[in-house]
Amino acid sequence: MGLELEISITSLSLKAFFAAKLKTQSQIWHNPFGILPKMGIIFPIGAGIGVSINLQSGIPMLTYFEVEAGFCGCASQIYSTDDDATAGAALGQQSRDYSSQVIPYGMQDDANGRRVAVPPPLGESSASIPGLEKIYCGEDEYGDLDPYGPEPTVFKIAIIANIAEGQIGVLLVMRNIYPVRLILMMFPFIPRPMAKLLIAARGVLDMITVKRFDVSLNPSPYPLFTRGGTEIKHGLLLDMIDFNFFKIILVRRVYLHVTIFPPGQGRPDGQRTRHVIHTRVEPSFHAFSGVI
Question: Which of 4, 86, 184, 227 is the most exposed place for a label (fewest CB within 10 A)?
Fold first, then answer.
């Protein structure tokens, strides 16, 4: 938590913010306070706002805004392998890459001697939500397993808007989004017969679903960081898998990665320049099927 105050001849600037992280390596607090058996909070969480007041007119103007939050959950009970050491052996086939940041890239020279970005193969990236790989959906109090499998639903958002410096960054991560699962994880007190009925009707109720929907946008040529330390890499990433819209539009795979190089990295001779910015666009539409 912090407060910044700046006074000049013409204006008064005030900025207030807070950010919270767990002391453990894992940044997921599952079943917080024992009252949310199907959900977990994803850290860091934080928020901030800044205003500038013109001393002559007295008119305030928004100069800074930040918010970061996230959660994960299951239709059944949520567990962590840290809670049960014996569960690890049974979860070998459930290991997944739950990364949520822009896919990192390497640098190499192309045929013309220019430095270009080389993204890794689709699906590869470094884990950016520490501890998420240990979270899984297991049996509930009735011994029922999650009908959607062991991978939890994940939602994370981070927004930075530094209006005074013309910077904005947005990170949105959605994994395993299914309406019926969202209802069951957010309302754990639903009676079991009603829960069974919802699960039986999920083929009808789950009309808008997505396996993965990751979006990261930062138009500036440099990464931005939230107060909690989350990095929003420069450029644009759209990574979508198995998107279903009312069973009319089915998108199997969409991948778009645009990289904006920082000034000075576009010259093969290594000299810095403020006028050269390279962009790399790699769309990949693996499959699309639909009936309109």
Answer: 86
Rounded Cα distance between 99 and 230, Å, is: 12
Angle at 251 between CA 245 and CA 253, to 5 degrees: 145
Provide the residue range defining the domain that includes 78.
2-290
Comparing CA positions, the residue from 68, 196, 57 lying closest to residue 128 is: 68
Three-state SS string over the chain comes to CEEEEEECCCEEEEEEEEEECCCCCCCEEECHHHCCCCEEEECCEEEEEEEEEECCCCCEEEEEEEEEEEEEECCCEEEECCCCCCHHHHCHHHCCCCCCCCCCCEEEECCCCCEEEECCCCCCCCCCCCCHHHEEEECCCCCCCCCCCCCCEEEEEEEEEEHHHCEEEEEEEEEEECHHHHHHHHCCCCCHHHHHHHHHCHHHHCCEEEEEEEEEEECCCCCEECCCCCEECCEEEEEEEEEEECCCEEEEEEEEEEEECCCCCCCCCCCCCCCCCCEEECCEEEEEEECC
Residue 163 has pLDDT above 50, yes or no: yes
pLDDT bucket at 6, cuts 50 / 70 / 90 = confident
Could you report the per-residue pLDDT of 43-56, keeping only the tens digit for each?
999 999 999 998 88
Q: Are 148 and 178 in contact (CB under 8 A)?
A: yes
CA distance 242 to 263: 37
Domain count, the chain: 1
User: How far apart, in whole angstroms, are the C-alpha atoms of residue 201 and residue 184?
Assistant: 13
